[in-house]
Amino acid sequence: MREILARPPTPPWGGEPPRLSARTLRRWLSIYQAAQGDPLAALEPKARADRGRARTIPPELLAEAISVRERAPRLSVKQILKVIEHPLREQVARRSLARALREAGYDKRDKRSRIAARCKGRLAPVDWDLQLWEADFPNEIWQVDSTPSIWLAKGRHRDQAVRLQLINLIDDHSRLIVGGGFVERLRVVDLLGFLIPAIATYGCPNVLFLDQAKIHRSTIVTQGLARLGGEAIFGTAGHAPGHGKVERLHQKAQNTLVEGFQLNPVFTVEGATRRHELWREDDALEEHTSTGESPLTRWKRIEGNARIPSEEELLWAFRGEVGRRVGKLGEIKWGGKLYEAPSSHRRADPYKASIRFDLLDDSQVWIEDEDGGRHACPLYRVRSHTERRRRRPPPARGVSFRALFEGPSADVEA
């Protein structure tokens, strides 16, 4: 035995010698000596007689879990236990149910086989220091990203099928999802529709990390963050500060939220976004595997110290600013429409002024003075002759020459 342990034999098929211990050799020897018949057959590994059958899980619960896995194969075991209605689901361990599903042949997300396939061949070394990097405190860095998501079929809600885009805003330190939802077509207006409520609730981040998408480079987004004390930083694909945090969040949403649509479908963008809000609330209270704390608990460490912008600040921070020519009659051209400046900002010669506009409301724009004052400019419209006469001041009442030499009339004295 000492010789075998010192120099283990090489397998007939080649490769490295197996790792052996004295305890293993004694166990094999006892099985060989106690065998009846062929002793080598006794050393072959034997499967359990009850293999494939759950011993601690009720058959009804396992059948219900298998039914959910067949309809929504990307749901995790934790999500399956939330979906099923069996009265004993709280007493079943996730590990036991996962093993039962794997033995029954319903493990369609076998991580072991995926890792083994990935480890074949040459791999680039992983920088674990960067892999575990995170911001030092909440609201230091936010990340925003979008990904194609579910399809909505055509029907009474729409004429053509449309694929929704999923947007997620995440705080790098706490992993808290501060905003997001579904949109049909991602535009700057849709991005601001998720970003502004997040800032109004949690405060403005020091850095908002975005990719090189065209809507992210909009001056309304970059200048609006600067007015609130933040900064927009653009990175390249695969070089985000969190090294895949928001991408892993997209994958989690795909495996839980989106997969849940298979069991309970949605038919409108608003319905999908409401479901996303409920999913965000549950995720904020769930303990994160890498931090050991819930995202909301981590973010609350700066609660009370996070500066929340006022409604007036948010209102003007994300309104665009352009330079436009103001004509002699006060006309301003912007966005294919004509606006008229107030009489206080009309001059004999045309001049260039700073114009502020709102992406969601094109009924008016504003002229901004150098001292910060803003004046509304409604849409220009051609007025009729009657309206122009009404705008003229009424003529002064004339006084006759004879009245200068006459005394006050009886009506005046009365």
3D architecture notes:
- By secondary structure, the protein is an alpha+beta fold.
- The protein has four domains: 2-42, no CATH class; 59-115, no CATH class; 136-302, Ribonuclease H-like superfamily/Ribonuclease H (Nucleotidyltransferase, domain 5, 2-Layer Sandwich), CATH 3.30.420.10; 319-391, no CATH class.
- It contains 16 helices and eleven strands.
- It has helices at residues 2-6, 22-34, 39-42, 59-71, 77-83, 94-103, 111-118, 128-131, 188-202, 219-227, 245-260, 269-285, 295-299, 311-317, 385-391, 410-413; strands at 141-152, 162-171, 177-183, 207-210, 231-234, 320-326, 331-334, 337-340, 351-358, 361-368, 374-378.
- A five-stranded mixed sheet has the order 3-2-1-4-5, with helices on both faces.
- Strand 2 (162-171) and strand 3 (177-183) form a beta hairpin.
- 20% of the residues are buried.
Structural features:
414 residues; alpha+beta; 4 domains; 5-stranded mixed beta sheet; 4-stranded antiparallel beta sheet; 11 strands
Low-confidence stretches: none
Measured by DSSP, the beta-strand proportion falls in: 15-25%
- End-to-end C-alpha gap: 137 Å
The overall average pLDDT, rounded, is 82
| CATH fourth-tier homologous superfamily of the largest domain | Ribonuclease H-like superfamily/Ribonuclease H
Number of separate domains: 4
CATH-scheme architecture of the largest domain: 2-Layer Sandwich
Structural class: alpha+beta
